[in-house]
């Protein structure tokens, strides 16, 4: 699968306090299941991790910063905001065991940059998003599926949240385990 690259420019300050460009790089989508950041294949989406803040408010606005590109940092990090691009391959009617129903403890802003994609909620409802559409995902159980014939590219900003409660029981909803998307060394370095 051929996926587009992304140019990421990160700014900062020099020793005189002047604004500078610290990094200007072309990033390639990576396989989120592979700690080495190889290219995705088949129905595996491509993750381009752009940036992760450290703390609230962000403390990595000056000096050193961790580059999350190609790293397994999980979907959400309770210690910072994650920005990434996800390229969803067109799967048509092929069974998709990768893009499964999941819930994160976060508010996610998803913007469709190119293509179309369907959001499936646990009540069975399906909503189609097209280029320019925005989804504000507030900790709901959902899945993304691309049943079109073209790849779909989305930009996500994931903001960690307080636990989400089930109104019927008063208990916290269970968060979907994402250990397969995490590497302890990468997460440690990102904090």
UniProtKB/TrEMBL annotation:
InterPro entries for this protein: Cupin_2 (IPR013096), OryJ/VirC-like (IPR047142), RmlC-like_jellyroll (IPR014710), RmlC_Cupin_sf (IPR011051)
Gene3D superfamilies listed in its UniProt record: 2.20.70.150, Jelly Rolls (2.60.120.10)
Domain Cupin type-2: 100-157
Start and end residues of each stretch annotated as Disordered: 1-34
Superkingdom of the organism of origin: Eukaryota
Pfam families, per the entry: Cupin_2 (PF07883)
CDD domains, A to Z: cupin_BLL6423-like (cd02231)
Protein name in UniProt: Cupin type-2 domain-containing protein
């Amino acid at each position: 699968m051929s996926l587009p690259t992304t140019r990421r420019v990160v700014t900062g300050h020099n020793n005189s306090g002047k604004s500078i460009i610290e990094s200007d790089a072309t990033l390639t989508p990576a396989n989120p299941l592979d700690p080495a950041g190889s290219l995705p294949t088949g129905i595996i989406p491509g993750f381009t991790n752009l940036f992760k803040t450290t703390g609230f408010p962000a403390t990595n606005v000056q000096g050193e910063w961790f580059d999350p590109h190609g790293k397994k940092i999980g979907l959400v990090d309770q210690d910072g905001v994650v920005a990434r691009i996800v390229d969803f391959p067109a799967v048509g009617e092929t069974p998709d065991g990768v893009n499964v129903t999941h819930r994160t403890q976060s508010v996610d802003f998803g913007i469709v940059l190119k293509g179309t994609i369907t959001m499936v909620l646990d009540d069975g409802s399906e909503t189609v998003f097209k280029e320019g559409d925005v989804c504000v995902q507030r900790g709901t159980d959902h899945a993304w599926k691309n049943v079109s014939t073209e790849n779909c590219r989305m930009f996500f900003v994931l903001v960690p949240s307080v636990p989400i409660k089930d109104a019927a029981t008063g208990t916290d909803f269970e968060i979907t385990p994402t250990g397969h998307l995490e590497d302890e060394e990468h997460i440690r370095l990102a904090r």
